[in-house]
Structures are given as C-alpha cells and as structure tokens.
Amino acid sequence: MIGIIDYDAGNIKSVEKALAYLGEETVVSRDPQVLLRADKVILPGVGSFGEAMENLHKYGLVPVIQDMIKKGTPFLGICLGLQLLFESSEETPGVEGLGILKGKILRIPPSPGLKIPHMGWNSLHLQNNGRLFKDIPEDTHVYFVHSYYLQAEDPQIVKAVTEYSTTIHASVEKDNVFACQFHPEKSSKYGLKILENFAKLEKEGN
C-alpha cells in the first residue's frame, strides 16, 4: 500500500491515477495512523512553499512525516514535495521547510529566451547511481513545471540534473528519502518506470 499525503496541494489525482495504472494499491489520506501503516509514502504537490508548510502544520503532518522517514519507510517527494524536504525557499523567506535534507530552494534566474515558470520537457543527466533511475536511459526527457529549483548541499545525494538557465538538481536520494523536481506521473513511459522503481523499493533495513 502506497500512502499519498493529502494536504490540499494540487496534483494528487494524477499521481494516484499513474500508480493505479501500474497496478499499485494507494490510499490518499491525511490521517496519521493510515499514513504510518503505509509501506511507502508520496508527498506530491503544486503550489506555494509557504502555504504548503502551513497546511502540513495545520493537519499535524510534520511529525508524521519525520516519524515515517525515521522508521525507514521509502518516501518520495514530487515537485513542491521535493522542495518541502529542504530547509527553506526563496519563494517564502522566513518559512522553515521540513529540513530533512540540506540545501537551498532558489528562484530560477532570468535568461534571454527562457520563460519562467519553466514548463515543459527537459532531458536528465544521470549521476551517482540513483535507485529511481534503474533502467532509465541517459538524456531521458521528463516534464517540469516550476519557478524555483533545488541546489542541494551534498552533491552525492544528487542523482539527476537538468539545465534550464542554470544547473537544476532534478532528483535526489538519501537513504530512504527520494525526491524529483519533475513530474514522473506526467512524464510518459519513463516517468511511469521511475514510479515503478519507487514502488518496488524495500524498506530500509530489510
């Protein structure tokens, strides 16, 4: 059973549908007990960093997320879900993120001919043997929608980068925590393969 955290952020339905297509059983919930029983958990999201953190606090989900990660449950952040795993974002200065991973969320710098938000398909450069990218070819194109990007503190956790005005850390992994800035659920067959790779992960320690 894969738990999908419901905290009033957009994009939950498309993640649920992609996992159903893969034959995975899911539950969309904000009930701590339901989420803590899940084998794996996904934090999806589209929206603003500050509002998302406010909702996670409002629904009492911050300690639940910390508990799940501590007990080794495979955890995947998607898009805004990736950004929330870090300490802070330029989008809402003064608002603390979950702080599970170290790094900065910065505004994509303006560049002639490039639109912000970055919306569309970009190729990934894979590095550091990411478990989510098993059987995914180099330069696979995936779908992005974002105005802010990750600069992770530890280069070893970065498993994929893309170029759009700057080098964007597109996916990270550390222990049982995984995150993608792009939307695997909207990224065609290879996006589904990334979700399938996540669904097949064993709990840390098994």
TrEMBL record:
<keyword id="KW-0378">Hydrolase</keyword>
<keyword id="KW-0963">Cytoplasm</keyword>
<dbReference type="InterPro" id="IPR029062">
    <property type="entry name" value="Class_I_gatase-like"/>
</dbReference>
<keyword id="KW-0368">Histidine biosynthesis</keyword>
<keyword id="KW-0315">Glutamine amidotransferase</keyword>
<protein>
    <recommendedName>
        <fullName>Imidazole glycerol phosphate synthase subunit HisH</fullName>
        <ecNumber>4.3.2.10</ecNumber>
        <ecNumber>3.5.1.2</ecNumber>
    </recommendedName>
</protein>
<dbReference type="InterPro" id="IPR010139">
    <property type="entry name" value="Imidazole-glycPsynth_HisH"/>
</dbReference>
<dbReference type="InterPro" id="IPR017926">
    <property type="entry name" value="GATASE"/>
</dbReference>
<feature type="active site" description="Nucleophile">
    <location>
        <position position="79"/>
    </location>
</feature>
<feature type="active site">
    <location>
        <position position="183"/>
    </location>
</feature>
<feature type="active site">
    <location>
        <position position="185"/>
    </location>
</feature>
<comment type="subunit">
    <text>Heterodimer of HisH and HisF.</text>
</comment>
<comment type="function">
    <text>IGPS catalyzes the conversion of PRFAR and glutamine to IGP, AICAR and glutamate. The HisH subunit catalyzes the hydrolysis of glutamine to glutamate and ammonia as part of the synthesis of IGP and AICAR. The resulting ammonia molecule is channeled to the active site of HisF.</text>
</comment>
<keyword id="KW-0456">Lyase</keyword>
<feature type="domain" description="Glutamine amidotransferase">
    <location>
        <begin position="4"/>
        <end position="199"/>
    </location>
</feature>
<keyword id="KW-0028">Amino-acid biosynthesis</keyword>
<dbReference type="Pfam" id="PF00117">
    <property type="entry name" value="GATase"/>
</dbReference>
<dbReference type="GO" id="GO:0016829">
    <property type="term" value="F:lyase activity"/>
</dbReference>
<comment type="pathway">
    <text>Amino-acid biosynthesis; L-histidine biosynthesis; L-histidine from 5-phospho-alpha-D-ribose 1-diphosphate: step 5/9.</text>
</comment>
